[in-house]
Predict the structure.
Amino acid sequence: MNNNFNNIENKRKDGSVWFNDLTRKRTNGPSFKDYRYTEYTDETKSVHSGQYDDPSTGALGTPIFQCSTFYLNESSYKAIEEGRGRDEMIYTRYGNPSQWSVQEKISALENAESSIVFCSGMAAISSAILAMLDKGSHIVSSRDIYGGTYNFLYEDLDKFGMSVTFTSPTNINEIEAAIQENTKLLYFEALTNPLLKITPIKDLVALAKKHNLRLIIDNTFLTPYNVKMLDLGVDLVVNSATKYLNGHSDLIGGTVSGSRKLVDRIWPQMLKNGGSMDPHACFMLERSLKTFALRMKTHNSNAMELAEYLENHPKIKNVYYPGLQSHPQSELAKEQLKGRNSGMISFEIEGGDKKSHELLKTLKLPKEATSLGGVESLISLPYNTSQASLTKEQRKSIGINDGLIRLSVGIEDIDDIISDFNQALHSIF
């Protein structure tokens, strides 16, 4: 750079200022005004934050702005010229009042400066990862990540001239050993699928700072209700909004939250990938988030009680749940999760996959279906759903044994859930 750069006069001939003299700063949002209710708890934020009360009609609750485009004006043109298109209503793929509203609610819950909502969890994940990398970059990730993410990293990064190394999510020494000269990013899940291994977030944050790397955490299994990843020093947090954030098994979506600076880098990647969330889906997600904190309380407490029941049943070989003292990382769970252990349980049943299938057919309340985080209990076998893309040897290497069942515990009455498991286990054995 020219050494005289800083000595040059403030303005060029056309009147514009030099970059080092710019005074405009990034704000939170984008938003219409501060709707975050930051001084309140998650229970209150879930209800009120982000909601846009229409000034023209007085409608209580954010309307569905079901439009593809908006009137252009001088403010719009100026924003486009200055590269501030994200802060103006121009085109719904760029931004929409319905998007802004739910993004503000998510930012309030995540304690984030900014958030983006996407049409799917994978759209959020792929956009966030690609936005943080360039050609030749290397990523360190986990062997235990969601199958869709694994496939994206393993099969697609090479097409962009990038590479990935998969490690144990719990072994910091192995993770550090995998870091290369061209490593730019660490990508891990806070609670792994399906064995509920706990990733040591504080250690990862320290490792990322030591090696000047970005850290992205997928917090889908825990959500910001259980752990606020950004408060722990994570750079970006992603969620599949399909799961607990929406919670009603009727929406596909994803979110990314973090600093305004980093989220602004992801926004153009989202535009190129075309993964924006449509206005009606935004309305549904914001509506569902109003009961988010209440639902998470019940998911957590139900899962804890059911995990204890299963652990004491003679036909259950192993139960994987962070709240149990038998969990191999129970001390880390107490420190990092502080009693909020998620609504997910995995367990192994005697008789292997054959008996597992029988159990799924005999249960009355849990629905045999993929996905998780719905108000209804959802149950599946990882070997033929979430980890179906892995070979049997790969599944064994990360601890997925015959007879492993994954259960997303719903908000039904816990006595009814336990009674149903009792009758089903008695029936098949």
